[in-house]
Specification:
The chain has helices spanning 3-11, 15-18, 63-72, 88-94, and strands spanning 38-42, 54-58, 76-81. It has 100 residues and is of the alpha+beta class. The structure holds zinc ion (ZN).
């Protein structure tokens, strides 16, 4: 199943030691490890308050797939470009609901 991991063990000797922290800005699509370039804002009225925004990160390839997934379920709110460190979720979680 995971050919890349098997190959990586052999070929990438020393890569792990670098410890580059790049895990946080990956696409949210299952099994996709591409860097995120989009953030999809969504809200599930059944479990979230109306002003709550959940964020999924998406690469170019999966942005449409994830948008469609959320839109089908009536959860999608907005899609915005994702610039490293600009996640809406991080901003709204640290603010105690005062910004508006
Ligand atoms: Zn992806």
């Amino acid at each position: 199943m995971n050919i890349f991991n098997l190959g990586g063990m052999e070929a990438g000797s020393g890569d792990d030691a670098a410890g580059t922290p790049n895990a946080e800005a990956q696409c949210s699509r299952k099994a996709c490890r591409s860097a995120a370039t989009w953030q999809l804002l969504w809200n599930n009225p059944r479990i979230h308050t109306p002003d709550r925004r959940k964020v999924w990160l998406a690469c170019d390839e999966h942005r449409e797939w994830l948008e469609d997934y959320l839109q089908t379920r009536g959860l999608w709110k907005a899609t915005m470009p994702f610039v490293d460190g600009s996640s809406i979720e991080a901003a709204s979680d640290s603010a105690h609901g005062g910004a508006s």
